[in-house]
Amino acid sequence: MGEIIKLDNICQYNEMVGQETLHPLVSVIDLSKSSRMMKHVRMSYGFYAVFLKEVKCGDLRYGRNYYDYQEGTLVFLAPGQVIGIDDNGEYFQPKGRALLFHPDLIRGTSLGHNMKDYSFFSYEVNEALHLSEQERGVIIDCLNNISEELNRGIDKHSKMLIVSNIELLLNYSIRFYDRQFITRENVNKDILSKFENVVNGYFQTDKPQTIGLPSVRYCADQLHLSANYLGDLIKKETGKSAQEHIQLRLIDIAKEKILGTNKTVSEIAYELGFKYPQHFTRVFKKNVGHTPNEYRGIN
Predict the structure, then answer these.
(1) Mean pLDDT, each 10-residue run in order, the chain (299 residues)
(2) Residue 247: CATH number of its domain
(3) What is the domain extent for residue 239?
(4) Are residues 156 and 98 in the same domain?
(5) Are 98 and 133 within one domain?
(6) Are residues 144 and 266 located together in one domain of the fold?
(7) In angstroms, rounded to a whole number, what is the distance separating the alpha carbons of residues 76 and 99?
(8) Fewest beta carbons within 10 Å, which of 26, 57, 212, 229?
(9) Total domain count for the chain?
(10) Pairing state between β 65-66 and 61-62
(11) Is 202 a member of any domain?
C-alpha cells in the first residue's frame, strides 16, 4: 500500500497542478491545461471534489459489464475520502476538469444545510455517474459559470453566485443519477436479487446472535457497493429503503418462528439479533399491529 498524500486546502491542490488560486475556498481546473506532469498517487482531500473524467468509459468495467456511456464520467468525493493509484514511477498529463470546494464555502448556506441529500458523495468510484453528451454539456456549462465568477474577481455577490452554481450542478447530478438508475434496470434488478439473497442468507447463519441485526452497510459490503449507492438504488427500484426491506424480511421470519415453533418471544428476539426482547416487540407491533404474543394468539 503506497503513501497517502493529504491535501488540507484547495491552494495545495492548485499548486500541485500548477493552477493559480483565484479563491481560497473554491477552484475550477481544466486538468488538460495543467503545466505540470503528474505521477500516480493516492490522495485524501480536506474538501469536496467533483471530477469530470475525459475518458472513454467503454475502457472501464463495471462488474462484468462495460460502462454504457462513452462521453465522460463524474466522480464525487467528500472530505476525508481517498482516491488514486499507487505510484508506479510513471508521469502522465492529467485530463478532464475538476471542481473543488471547501466546506467553509457553504457553511450557513442552503447548500451547506442540504449536503446530506447529495448521497453520491459517499459512492465508490466504480459507482460514478456516466454522462451522455447532452448531460456533459450541462455540467460543463455549470463549471464555466463558476469559473467566470472566479475570474471576475471577488465581490459581495460572488459567494452567493458561486454556491448557487455548485448547487445547480449537484441538482442536475441527482437528475442524471435518476436516469442512470433507470437505464441500468437489468443491472439494478440483479443487484436487488443479490441483496435479498444476502439478507436471507444472513438469517440462516448464527450472525444475528454474534453480530446483531443486519445493517445496510453489511449488505453493501457483501455486494462490493457503498451503503449509500445500494440504498439509493433500492429506493429507486422499489420505493422502499434498504432498511425497510431488511425489516420486512425480519418480520416475515419472526412470523414464521412465532407460529411455527413453541419458542418464547425472548428466544425469538435473541435469535433474530435483538439485544432486548422489548425492542423486538416494539418493532413487531409497529409493522404488524399486534405484539408477538397477540399475533400468536389470533393465528
Answers:
(1) 80 90 94 74 87 59 39 84 68 80 94 93 83 92 95 88 96 94 82 92 93 94 92 89 93 92 93 93 93 89
(2) 1.10.10.60
(3) 207-298
(4) yes
(5) yes
(6) no
(7) 10
(8) 212
(9) 2
(10) antiparallel
(11) no
CA distance 210 to 271: 10
**Three-state helix/strand/coil letters over 69-104:** CCCCEEEEECCCCEEECCCCCCEECCCCEEEEECHH
What amino acid is encoded at 140 in this protein?
I
DSSP output for 144-183: HHHHHHHHH---TTHHHHHHHHHHHHHHHHHHHHHHHHHH
Residue 209, C-alpha cell as written in the block:
446472535
d(CA 201, CA 207): 10
Q: Is 28 helix (H, G, I), strand (E, B) or coil?
A: strand
Q: Which backbone phi and psi does 47 adopt, to 5 degrees?
A: -150, 170
Separation of alpha carbons 27 and 10, rounded Å: 7
Domain harbouring 13, CATH code? 2.60.120.280
> How far, CA to CA in Å, does 160 sit from each of 106, 149, 155, 184, 216?
9, 10, 10, 36, 37
In one letter, which amino acid is 229?
Y
Q: What is the pLDDT of residue 173?
A: 96
Element holding 38 (H helix, E strand): strand 38-39
Cα→Cα distances 199→194, 221, 226, Å: 9, 12, 16
Residue 274 lies in a domain: yes
Contacts 24+ apart (CB under 8 A), 4-9: 4/42, 4/43, 4/44, 4/82, 5/41, 5/42, 5/43, 5/44, 6/43, 6/44, 6/46, 7/43, 7/44, 7/45, 7/46, 7/47, 8/46, 9/46, 9/47, 9/102
Burial of 64 (0-12, 13-18, 19+ CB in 10 A): exposed
Strands 129-130 and 73-77: antiparallel
Judge if 168 and 272 occupy the same domain: no
| 24/171 same-domain check | yes
